[in-house]
Amino acid sequence: MTSAKQRQMSLVAFMQAGSTSVYSGSWRHPANEPGYLDASFYAKIGRQLEEGCFDLMFFDDRLAMPGIYGGSVDEAVRYGARPVKLDLGVVLGVLAQATSKIGLGGTYSTTYYAPYHVARTFGSLDHLSGGRAAWNVVTSINDSEAQNYGVQQILGHDERYDRADEFLEVVTGLWETWEDGAIIADRAAGIFADPAKVHELHHNGQYFSSRGPLTVPRTPQGRPVLLQAGSSGRGREFASRWADLIFTGDPGIEIARSHYRDQKDRIAEAGRDPEQVKICPMAYAVVGESEAQARDREAMLLNDLVHPEASLALLSELMNYDFAQHSLTDPVTDELIASVNGIRGLVQNLRQHIGDNVTVGDLAAHRATLLQGPRFVGTGAQVADQMTEWFETGACDGFVLAASHFPGAFEDVVRMVVPELQRRGLFRDRYQGSTLREHLGLDRYESAPAAAAAI
Asked: Is the pLDDT higher at 39 or at 374?
């Protein structure tokens, strides 16, 4: 049994509800199971991760096929660049039934959904899963998504976060409209709930208005866990204010240490306890029975499975910019960055990692292959060594592990890496609680009834 006092890492599985993992060549992997249109596929992965005591499985999402590259979805469809995306509300409902401990998270956009809808969806999931819900907050920037939702103009980078701040104020305010103990259910007296403990919100702001109260009572966790992945300066400020778990994309350990220190300082400056916010970089684990086998697996993933135009299609989607007008060898200039209303942190991180001479090909490979985060390669013990170095030297509080293929990549981690971490006392050997906040070592979110009553 592990020591209760020893700091332990968080493990999060990065999921996609569709035809590929975050690695866009996964559909071509010889061991990939093509069951992504079947509920049992997700249930199997959820139970597998639960056997490995993972804190959370959360799903990335986009609300459109990649259609920026060349003004068409053709290359995304032709080369399998994530053209299939299922509705996460349904998938998470399947998993709430199929699992009993692991946290369940989904990506919902502050651009294309309404705050009331998001508050109701994740409040419901938190109840129906017994306190395991998490919302990954994103500020969408993609024209293809906008065209699917009738949005005519994408907001600028900082204004997207200003709007998202108010979106979070509304969502979290709605979660606060029910106090603990509001439901009495006194059958004899005919009293269901105490009206003094259920409050209208009456939010009227620059971007949103919502009367409330929410039709979902206060949830088992106090409120669902909030995830966020902003990497620019404004994005880090947003995460410092709201996130319980910050999902980063730092490609190297020195960059990760710097990011970790900066983000923890920002959290403290925002008046929050840095120990109550987890910072977890995305990473790949390529595990083999021997180091040679692991290196062979890595080589196949890096060289053989992702078509260059699939990479460019995904890069165009990410940056909301048509890279069909560039070749892979074109440099990423300051002028190009200034013209792209996309994600600035990606270029910043790459420049720190490989130097100033970043090409379009570097960006594309970073988006579509195993270059997007650290890559831990080797036997179970060797991968555990690499993860331990990051964890124990101030680079992270754990990892968001992405899969090179489903479900085998997670099977390898659960079978070969997790036992090594458990032997070292760095990861749990069983769940100690029932809610996601308990898994993450976070306090239940407590309400402020006096403030709620004053609204």
From this structure: 39
How far, in Å, CA of 413 to CA of 52, rounded? Answer: 8
Q: In degrees rounded to 5, what are phi and psi of residue 402?
A: -95, 150
Would you state the pLDDT for residue 455? 38
201: part of which helix (H) or strand (E)? Answer: none
Q: Which amino acid is at 393?
A: T
CB 49 within 8 A of CB 42: no
Q: Where are the domains of the chain?
A: 10-294+374-454
CA distance 206 to 162: 10
Tokens describing residue 80: 């399998």
What is the pLDDT, as a whole number, of residue 114? Answer: 96
Cβ-count burial of 17 within 10 angstroms (0-12 exposed, 13-18 middle, 19+ buried)?
Answer: buried
What percentage of the chain has pLDDT greater than the value 90?
72
**Residue 294 near residue 288, CB atoms below 8 Å:** yes
State the chain's maximal CA–CA distance in angstroms.
76
Say what the pLDDT of residue 452 is.
41
For 324-353, the pLDDT digits (tens) are: 988 888 887 777 766 665 545 566 666 666
* The token pair that represents 227 in the structure block: 């995830």
For residue 213, say if its preceding peptide bond is cis, omega within 30 degrees of 0: yes
> Which among 280, 254, 195, 217 is positioned nearest to 447, based on CA atoms?
217
Query: Span 278-300, mean pLDDT?
Result: 96
Helix or strand or coil: residue 98? helix
| pLDDT, tens digit (0-9, with 9 covering 90-100), for 37-72 | 999 999 999 999 999 999 999 999 999 999 999 999
- Selection from 250, 269, 270 nearest residue 260 by Cα: 250
What tokens appear for 141 in the block? 């920037």
Q: Is 1 exposed, middle or buried (0-12, 13-18, 19+ CB in 10 A)?
A: exposed
Domain range 10-294+374-454, CATH architecture: Alpha-Beta Barrel (3.20)
Task: Kindly state the tokens that stand for 357.
Answer: 């001479």
Q: Angle formed by the axes of helices 360-368 and 344-354, to 10°? A: 110
> What's the pLDDT at 369?
62
- Whether the CB-CB separation of 341 and 154 falls below 8 Å is answered with yes
Which two structure tokens, joined as six digits, stand for 282?
Answer: 């995305």
Residue 385, C-beta contacts closer than 8 angstroms, at least 6 positions apart = 378
Beta bridge partners of 183: 193
